[in-house]
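Service request form, structural biology core

Requester: graduate student, group of Dr. S.
Request type: structure prediction, single chain
Budget code: on file
Notes: please return the result as structure tokens.

Sequence provided:
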Amino acid sequence: MPENVLEVRGLRRTFGAVRAVDDVSFALPAGGSLGVVGESGSGKTTTARIVVGLERADGGEVLVRGRSRTARGRTGGRVGGRAARLARAREVQMVFQDPYLSLDPRTGVGAALRETLRLHFPGRDHTRRVTELLDQVGLGTRAAEALPRQLSGGQRQRVAIARALAVEPAVLVLDEAVAALDVSVQAQILNLLADIREQTGIGYLFITHDLGVVRCVTDEIVVMRHGAVVEQGRTEEVLAAPGHPYTRLLLESVPRPGWDPQAIAAARRAL
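Core staff response, request fulfilled:
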């Protein structure tokens, strides 16, 4: 069995009386692709933010390459100095749904990549690496001088992916990373991600509500509802024969010929 590059064990996170994440556990093998699916409010994005380190867990543990990322001091803050925090950041990177909001509109593409590289690898000439990253995500060197507003949505997402790959992470978390793109552009980005995974062996954690995306690009799936995992397993097996009523409801909610939204609404109320 391949080594797990990411392990999530018993994660919990509450906001007041709401259990946003309730005893969530899963594992991502090295070079694997895991989808976490569910409706809005299912807890999937909060789980992803805990994995990345943008959100604090109330309990449980996140391990990357067998090392815990959830050690805390008495104040609840992260343990370690700046070097330790940067080292943790290099292990797990995140690509968000809207790349325009995650890119500085005043900074050109090349400058944004160089800024990331200088932060993590100071004292080096990063010219060649910037060119390599642009080539890796299918952008030419001319894109280096462009501002985000001068690029299409698909091109901006490629820049966001390049910036995340710059530090050579073990895990790339993609939070609805193609949801804001046209269908044809979605296919291009998903093909790009498949190529990158094959070339680098990076592990992907896909956070999405789109079962079509999950079916195409993931090996395993975790289904979340009300903060808890209700089903998980091999993607093709879960989607072909879901064992939980909620997973069946998600599949039946996808529009298709003969689709009956009233029956879906009634099933949702019954569940």
